[in-house]
Every structure is written in C-alpha cells, then in structure tokens.
Amino acid sequence: MKLSLVFLFVIVDIVKKGNLLPAAYGFLTTHSRHRVRGLMSYPKNAESNGVERDEVVEKLNQAKEIVAQAISIGAPAYNVGDIARCAQVYEQASNQLAPFLPNDLQSKLLKEVSGIDGMDDDSRAWALRGLFDSISGYQLPFSPMIIGDDSNIVFQPFDATILPAEPRPVMDSVMGGISEGSWVPELKTFRGTTSLANNGGFSSLRWRFQTPQNWSHAKGIYFQSLQHSSPTEHTFRLILKDATCEQIRLSNFKAVFANPNESKEPLLIPFSAFDQMEQMGNPLVGSPGFRPSVVTEIGIMAIKPTVVGSFELHFEEWGLYN
Description:
CATH architecture of the largest domain: Sandwich
CATH topology of the largest domain: Jelly Rolls
Shape: globular
Oligomer: single chain
Radius of gyration: 21 Å
Number of helices: 4
Structural class: alpha+beta
Number of domains: 2
Largest sheet: 7 strands, antiparallel
Helix content: 10-25%
Distance between the termini: 55 Å
Order of helices and strands: HHHHEEEEEEEEEEEEEEE
Strand order of the largest sheet: 2-5-13-8-9-11-12
C-alpha cells in the first residue's frame, strides 16, 4: 500500500528544525526500531503575537485534533492485532494534515521516513504514530515582533529592587543527569551544556522572590536584544511559579521562546500564554491558570530535544510590559 502524494507533501513540509516535544508512545512503548523522532520548528514568518500567530496556533490545534482522533481509533486496532487497520487509519489521517501545518515547515524527518513507502503495515504504523506524537507535543515558540512607533507598550525592566541578584541553578541532577549551566551577570548570559546521559537533558536558572510579587498590572514578560546559540534550532523556556505552585510539588508554568531570525526587536510573552500548570513537564489537567498577582519565582530553561550540547542565551534587558 503506497503513501499518497498528499502524505509525501506532509512529510516534506514537516519541520526542518525545531522543537517538538515527543509525547508518550502508548502502545508503542515496548519497541524502538521504527520510532520517528519528530523535530519540528517554528514557522519563520509567524508573528510572536497578534492575528497571524493566533491563526497558526488554531490550525495546529486542528492538526492535533485530527491526530488525536486517528490515535483513538488506530491504537485500539493495533492492540487487538488489526495492524493493517491501524496503518490505514494513520495514513488516512496523515493525508488531512497538510492544510493545517505552517507553510514554512520543512523536512528533517524525510530521511528518517524515506523508506516508508516500502514498509509493512507494522513498520508504517510505528513511523506514523511517532510523527503524530511529535505533532501532538509541538508548541509554537514566541519570537521577536516588530513594534511600531505608535505603540503604547510600556516596558518596566527588572532591576535589583525587583529581581534577586543571583539565580539558583536547577539542573537535571535531581534525576541523575549531568547537565550544567550558569549565569554570567556581567554579560547577561545564561550558558551551559545539556546532556542526555542518565535520562537527563535540561539546565535552568531560577530567581526566587522573598515575598510574592504582584504583577497584575502588567500584560507579560519581555526580552530586549535577545540572541542565542543555533538560532534556527535552539528554543528555550520561560518559567513562572505562583502561590498555587508552592502548594504542588515540582509544579510551574512554562512558555517556549526563540529568536530564529536573530531579530533585534523585543520579544513579548503574555501572561495568557501560561495557561497550563505542569509537574515535571507533565500537564496537570484541571489545574488553575497562572496568577500574576502572586508570583513567587521566574526562570529560564534550556531543554532537550531542541537543546542538546552547548548552548548560550543572551539578552540585554528583561522585565514586565503593559
């Protein structure tokens, strides 16, 4: 059974560089030889905020719905031994994805699935499920945006009266990892190395407040003159904790950001983006949203799969905007 031209288009358009966070493989967890490691990137022309970003996110959500529906049918079929049915359902779903994926997505998966046309049903089901899991876990990074001279945005930089001078390093050593990272204050740079050894893969810095901060007057966090290593590949996380997170061990809120085009414009991340509390990277379904009136901690993180090895993140200024 050959793949349709539409699916080949999807594969070619599936990211060249990026930041897909693979989800659990469910019924595929006992195997490994045919998994497709999805590495999707942000669309280069998508604005960090505004209508264009909203449209991209909406389409991506539609793609995720198609994927979820396919898995809900295909996975049970596979589990009862109807592998051909599973492969058929997955292939049909893949044929629907192209209109919902950003135009600038290019293939980094093509070489990994280049032989899929000749695969048997089992192998094809594996490859497509890996692709689907990658799409399901994709988060569109915030990136710098052009702000006109007539903009009413007001920037409030973090200073010594707001932000603690020294951050606290939080590495994957808590799980046995060996990643490293440090803050170089005179250079305003976060640098280090992430390692996959011992199931690790993240490095982070956290600025903790002695008393909760009330940022309810602001719309979000901004970075000015942000630059980083491997611009078209590396993405980073902004971490926030509120008073509720203090009651739930190892919980926080995260948003993905990057500067793929090395823009000099400011990067804005609205508080509304922090709509899902996480615990050890896993969503806490039903948890309350972020409360900017009681902020207890802010941090930055480099994490696999987009940052593996040496990294560097620099910005001249960051703070609140409204």
